[in-house]
Amino acid sequence: MRQIIVQKSRLCQFHNNLSSPDSVNGWINKSVVTEFILLGLSSSRELQLFLFFVFSVFYGAAVLGNILIILTVITDSRLHSPMYFFLNNLSFIGVCQATFATPKMIADFLSEHKTITFKGCMSQIFFLHVFGGSEMVLLVAMAYDRYIAICKPLHYMTILSRRLCTVLVGVSWAIGILHSASHLVFTVDLPFCGPNKVDNFFCDLPLVIKLACLDTYVLEILVLTNSGLLSLICFLLLLISYTIILATVHRQASGGTSRALSTLSAHITVVVLFFGPLIFIYIWPFESFTTEKFISVFFTVFTPLLNLMIYTLRNKDVKEAMKKLRNQHVGSKEAF
C-alpha cells in the first residue's frame, strides 16, 4: 500500500511538472527565454554612430519616396491604370518592408543593450515573410500585366479590370500571410531555454530556430522547403512570362531584342535584385556567411529604395505627375 501511495505521489509530481509554466514541451526549464539579444552589424562604437546616420538617411528616403509615389498615383487620374495600381501596391509593400525592422536597428546603434522581446521577435519573423511572400506574388502579377499589355494590347483594359487587379493584389497578400503563418505556427512552440543571441540586427528565422533546445534538422528542412517552393514557383512563372514577352516583342518590334530589353529592363532588374539575395540566403540557410548581414540589410533597406528608383523615378509619366503635384503644392502655398 505504501509503495502504491509513493508511486501515485511521483505520478502527480510528474504531471505537475509537465503542466507547470516553467516547462516547455514537457521539459522542465526554469530559465525560459523571454527576450533575445541582437548582435547587430558591428560592435565598434564609432562604426555604429556612422551607420546610424547612413541608415537614417536611406530609411527616410525609402519611406518618404514610396509614400510620395503612393500619393502621386492616387491624386493623378492619368496614372489610374492596372500597371500603376500594381506599382502603388509595390510601393506600399516597400514602406512596410523598410519599417518592420529598420527603425529598431537604427535605435539600437545608440543603445548598448540590443534586446528584443520574444513576442517582438516572433512579430519580426511574421512580418518579414508576409511582406517577402506578398512581394514575390505581386511581381508575378506585374509580369502578367506586362504580358497582357504587350501580347494582347487591344484587350488590355478588358482583361485587367479593376476587379481582377484587386483580386490579384488580395491573393498576393493572402499567400504572404499563409506563407508566414506556416513558419510561425511551429516556431512559437519551440523550447528556447538557454542561448538567446541572434547574430543579426533582426530576428531571422533560420538563426532563431538554431537557438531552440532540440534537434532542428526537420525544422530546417521544413523552412527550406516552404520558402524555397514559393520562391521557385514565383521565379519560374516570372521566367516564363518574361521569356514569352521578349519573344513577342522581338517578333513585333522593329528595334528587335535591344528595344525589348530597354522596355522591360526595369521589371527584369527588380526581379533579379529581389530573387538574387533570396536564393543566396535560402540555398544554405543554416550556414554562417560573412555576407549574410549585408544581404539582410540589402533586402530590408536598399530593396525598397531601389524599387522606387528603378520602377518609378525612371518613368516619364510618374515624374511628370510628381512635378504637377509639386507645382500644385507650391501654388497653394503662394495663394495662402
Give a brief rundown of this model:
With 336 residues, the protein is mainly alpha-helical. The protein is built from 12 helices and 5 strands.
Report on the structure:
The chain is mostly helical and 336 residues long. Helix content is 74%, strand content 4%. The protein contains twelve helices and five strands. It has helices spanning 2-19, 45-75, 82-99, 102-108, 118-151, 156-159, 162-187, 205-209, 217-252, 256-283, 292-313, 316-335; strands at residues 23-24, 27-28, 35-38, 115-117, 197-198. The strands form two sheets. A three-stranded mixed sheet has the order 4-3-5. The chain has a two-stranded antiparallel sheet with strand order 1-2. Strand 1 (23-24) and strand 2 (27-28) form a beta hairpin. Helix 3 (82-99) runs antiparallel to helix 11, helix 5 (118-151) packs parallel to helix 9 (217-252) and helix 9 (217-252) runs antiparallel to helix 10 (256-283).
Give the helices and strands, then pairings:
Blueprint: H1 2-19, E1 23-24, E2 27-28, E3 35-38, H2 45-75, H3 82-99, H4 102-108, E4 115-117, H5 118-151, H6 156-159, H7 162-187, E5 197-198, H8 205-209, H9 217-252, H10 256-283, H11 292-313, H12 316-335
Parallel strand pairs: 3-5
Antiparallel strand pairs: 1-2, 3-4
